[in-house]
Description:
The protein has helices at residues 3-16, 19-26, 30-44, 60-86, 100-117, 134-137, 169-175, 225-233, 243-252, 281-293, and strands at residues 49-51, 56-58, 92-98, 121-127, 141-146, 154-167, 190-192, 203-207, 210-214, 220-222, 239-242, 256-258, 264-273, 309-310. By secondary structure, it is of the alpha/beta class. The protein folds into 3 domains: 3-86, Arc Repressor Mutant, subunit A (Orthogonal Bundle); 92-159 and 267-297, D-Maltodextrin-Binding Protein, domain 2 (3-Layer(aba) Sandwich), CATH 3.40.190; 161-266 and 302-310, D-Maltodextrin-Binding Protein, domain 2, CATH 3.40.190.290.
Amino acid sequence: MDTSRVITLFIAVVRAGSFSQAAAEAGLSPQAVSKAVRQLEDSLGVRLFHRTTRSLSLTEEGERLFELASPGLRLLDEALENVRNSRKDMDGVIRVAAPTSFGNHMLIPLVRDFQDLHPGVQFDLLLEDHFTDLIDAKIDVGFRGGNPPERNLVSRRIGDIGLYICAAPRYLEKHGAPQTVDELAAHRCTGFRQPNTGRLVPWELRIDGGTVYKDIPTVASFNTVEGEVQAVREGVGIGQLAAYMAEADIAAGRLVHLLPHTVTVNSGVYMYYQQRTQMPQRVRQFIDFASERAPGLFPKIKHPTIGVTIGVSSTIASRTQP
């Protein structure tokens, strides 16, 4: 016996004053409702209604059950209505996952601007350089760099990742600047180590209209983007950095953009989320907001890559997120 169902139908009969009216409101036949009430009576071992062909009234036991159960059902109805209305409510928490570098440079300004419009929204941010499973981590919206997620998710490309070869003035004063890609082998260079696999990510270079991936010897490697950027700022070596991470430093003179003709924009930053028709309104609004605002946060790349990939597999690790 489905206890909650039969009690719900019992209360409906009491409120309607008849089996036929309760059945009509529930979309059932009077026989089905009558059977459900008899199951409840058999389970309790008492009669709940005095039934005649002309009248229907509660027994003493029936009155007691109605008095005890009715407030509980009302609370349940209120709880269901509250959850139902929450889909339309902008107040509440949005859980977001993103790579640390993107979170610090791009996502936090988006959060600030969104909360200016919707002060009742709270954010729970998970910033890590591993790919985050939305279901396991109970995440509403995720961001990642590189290739779009290869899962049953909706993904939107919200920005291009240009890759700049950069060095600090301090490094250049001491070691000079490479004039060609081949000269990089004679310089002290930094590298990014893919967090999930530990593999050193090859440099991605635009050469003769195509994209070439080169393994560059490194004097220091890092498993976070921000760690490598800071090392390049300090003059540890020459590094290939995401344009959105290096642009402000280049403008301020803390970094120098080298070999600009090698810049590529094969990778992008993707926003991803589950395919849901019952998405809370605040999550839907944030997705639309980020889709509109995020592209304007990325620097415009002066040398887009148009061409084919030469001599590498189709799946290349990203320096922004695994």
